[in-house]
């Protein structure tokens, strides 16, 4: 297989790549990396010394790329789909990149702070940092609400890089910090993301792993992992 994606089913930045791959219909294989396994972690470090997921390998071009946004940029150029994730119009593309950064930095970032802190021993928890992360999410939601009022997608008329970032970021953030009921534009945007076949597929594939998510008890019933009977 030419393309290999090193990822984990619960990693939101890996979800971001999968959305782009499914949107384009690109053929690839996935290698699931357990960062808690020393051998698997060592293999990842050999690919990308920072040791973070996702990482994409293209054997034909002898290219190894980390960082979700960079990977999508590469995929859009080398494996273009029917609808580019980076809009052709320069101004719209700039907006797509802006909102990609927004969702990564101001939704993903605080969300991950809260999740990672939950794994710490009680005497090492950063209660102030978690409270600040919750406030950052509320501020981000307010900005998204204003921006999405009267819009279907975050940048231009089509699904783009911005949505690849928004979908997993909002999915997990909403579990930790629910939307305000008055934020109807934000909620409608989130529901549109859920209906997108590419993201729906990502969630279906991730669902068996949700059992390991530390805030699973807060998830909507529609996302809860199935319990065998």
UniProtKB/TrEMBL annotation:
Domain GST N-terminal: start-end pairs: 1-83
Record CDD domains: GST_C_family (cd00299), GST_N_family (cd00570)
Coiled coil: none
Pfam families assigned to the protein according to its UniProt record, in alphabetical order: GST_C, GST_N_3
PROSITE patterns: GST_CTER, GST_NTER
Name of protein: Glutathione S-transferase
UniProt cross-references to InterPro entries, sorted A to Z: Glutathione-S-Trfase_C-like, Glutathione-S-Trfase_C_sf, Glutathione_S-Trfase, Glutathione_S-Trfase_N, GST_C, Thioredoxin-like_sf
Residue ranges of domain GST C-terminal in the record: 89-223
Protein origin, superkingdom: Bacteria
Organism: Alloyangia mangrovi
């Amino acid at each position: 297989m030419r393309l290999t994606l090193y990822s984990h089913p619960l990693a939101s930045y890996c979800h971001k790549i999968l959305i782009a791959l499914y949107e384009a219909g690109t053929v690839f294989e996935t290698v699931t990396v357990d960062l808690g396994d020393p051998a698997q972690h060592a293999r990842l470090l050999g690919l990308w010394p920072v040791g973070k997921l996702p990482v994409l390998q293209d054997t034909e071009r002898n290219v190894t790329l980390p960082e979700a946004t960079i990977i999508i940029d590469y995929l859009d150029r080398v494996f273009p789909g029917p609808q580019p994730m980076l809009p052709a119009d320069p101004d719209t593309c700039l907006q797509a990149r802006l909102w990609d950064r927004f969702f990564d930095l101001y939704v993903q970032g605080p969300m991950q702070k809260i999740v990672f802190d939950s794994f710490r021993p009680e005497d090492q928890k950063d209660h102030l940092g978690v409270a600040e992360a919750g406030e950052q999410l509320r501020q981000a939601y307010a900005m998204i609400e204003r921006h999405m009022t009267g819009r279907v997608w975050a940048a231009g008329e089509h699904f783009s890089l911005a949505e690849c970032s928004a979908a997993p970021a909002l999915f997990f953030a909403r579990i930790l910090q629910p939307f305000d009921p008055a934020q109807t534009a934000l909620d409608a945007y989130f529901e549109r993301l859920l209906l997108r076949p590419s993201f729906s597929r990502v969630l279906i594939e991730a669902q068996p792993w949700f059992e390991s998510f530390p805030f699973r008890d807060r998830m909507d019933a529609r996302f809860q992992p199935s319990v065998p009977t």
